[in-house]
Amino acid sequence: MGTEKCPFCGQEIDSAATRCFFCGAELSEESVHKRLEQLHEQDERFARRPRSPFAAGLIVVVILIGIVLFYDNSGRKPVSYIDNPYQSSTIRLKAKIAFPEAGFIITNDDSFDWQNVKLELMPESTEDSFSLKVPNISAGETYTVTAAEFSRADGVRFDLYKMKPKKLLILCDTPNNKSGSYYLEW
User: Fold this and answer.
1) 142 in a domain, yes or no?
2) Is this model's pTM higher than 0.70 or not?
3) Is 173 found in the same domain as 132?
């Protein structure tokens, strides 16, 4: 199995993936082709633009404002790259996650149910991904799961004695036909 960059967010993903693990974008042949055409057109427009110091300064100011606006103030790292500007159907979920002892306590703080929930756990030592699927986490519900319930595609389970959790990603469907995502890094 090889890897390639997602045309929507630029993260390294499995070349056989049908959906980007990081931004949730569908990777059908048609959507990838359309996205590559958009990027090519943007590159051509950018190459034709005259460059000026004012434009560069304006870009820096816009980037700084974006960082300030998209920074989650609860002590976690910025999660703005999950809110992919090219995929307007993705919304950031409101969740609380605690990691006592050998498990996780996940609370849905949204006013809607999370449906077809996929939890992804990544260890500190590798870029492996361990996943767990949950049919539904209701609004206001607290869901408790042990680390050993997460497994890779080959059946290997997450082992807290050998691995330390580094990242947790929540992907789900929402009632308004949008994709939801939440990212946490320790």
Assistant:
1) yes
2) no
3) yes
Question: What DSSP string describes the chain?
Answer: --EEE-TTT--EEETT-SB-TTT--B--HHHHHHHHHHHHHHHHHHHHSPP-HHHHHHHHHHHHHHHHHH--TTSSPP-GGGS-TT-TTEEE--EEEE--TTEEEEEE-SSS-EEEEEEEEEESSS---EEEEEEEE-TT-EEEEEGGG-B-TTSPBP-TTT--EEEEEEEEE-TTS-EEEEEEE-
Within-domain flag for 153: yes
83 assigned to some structural domain: no
Q: Let me know whether 1 and 72 are in one domain.
A: yes
> What range defines the domain where residue 59 resides?
1-76
Series of mean pLDDT values for 10-residue runs along the chain (186 residues): 83 87 85 86 76 73 78 48 51 88 86 92 82 92 89 87 86 89 86
